[in-house]
Amino acid sequence: MSTEDRRPLRAGLIGLGMMGRHHARNLRALEGVELVAVADPQGDPHGAAPGYDVLPDARALVDAGIDYAVIAVPTQFHRDVALTFAEAGVHCLVEKPLAFDVAEAEEIAAAYEQAGLVGAVGYIERFNPALQEMRRRLADGQLGEIFQISTRRQGGFPARISDVGVVKDLATHDLDLTAWVAGSDFAQVAAFSTRRSGREDEDMVSVTGQLASGTITSHLVNWLSPFKERVTVVTGENGALVADTVNADLTFYANGESATNLWDSMASFRGVSEGDMVRYSLRRTEPLRTEHEAFRDAVAGDPSNIVTMREGLQTVRAVEAVLCSAREGRIVRPDDVAS
């Protein structure tokens, strides 16, 4: 059934902070959806929902008669708010990460599964045109065997963050997108973190990982750089794909595969050389808009493009493994992280 043939879905939004205001803008413009109510105990500081009465909590949104809700409150409140909606039979899109820790993430995922509801996690980077095209090309085998995935996510400190460190706020994006583009979960991680800005939580982390597929990974994430960088590099036997998600650019660097003329003992060595470089032309749509369209379609019956809560749970496991590794100075397997 097309969006034109069905009644508009009634949506609610809780959390009108820096991210919530963007959710409000997209929900108000989304075809086939009516934003009927918003909630935030702190009011509407950014004027994100003019003309709406700002309700106090999730229960008030339920009473407004919504079909689905978007949760954009601080991470520490995700569990209580999400469970309120699950108990009321309301589908839910939860901003990343799914929950504050593994136990809370498991509880949320189980609640939505048992209730037969659509539950998703808002990993906006998955909907970036550059990463979507990268994943498609990797699935088509453009790079052949994938050797390495590296990401860099660096910039200044966002004043909106007060309840978590850089791992749960930013590195969670890289852990999620790396497993997603490769189609393989993390098997183990080793991490180092530091605190340089005077906050209680970490503001810089370096992570080395290995996926279940054998691909090795590296991730540099911080709130301490005087520039903004969002780069994902996937290197394989046929070359490398480089995604700049700030500008939604994707570039392919081909392996020229020049033959070696070295002596026999080196004849089996497979070297690389610079080949052609291609910058792809992409249709640039706002990732958050695409994310909302995917969740709307999931509620309507097509869940094929959402980030499921089970996937969100696995990313929370990887996040906790990174924090454990940095704290204890050892390699940690996400599957061994206790609930």
UniProtKB/TrEMBL annotation:
UniProt domain Gfo/Idh/MocA-like oxidoreductase N-terminal: residue ranges: 10-123
Signal peptide range in chain numbering: none
Segments forming domain Gfo/Idh/MocA-like oxidoreductase C-terminal: 136-332
Superkingdom assignment: Bacteria
Name of a matching Pfam family: GFO_IDH_MocA
Family designation: Belongs to the Gfo/Idh/MocA family.
Protein name: Gfo/Idh/MocA family oxidoreductase
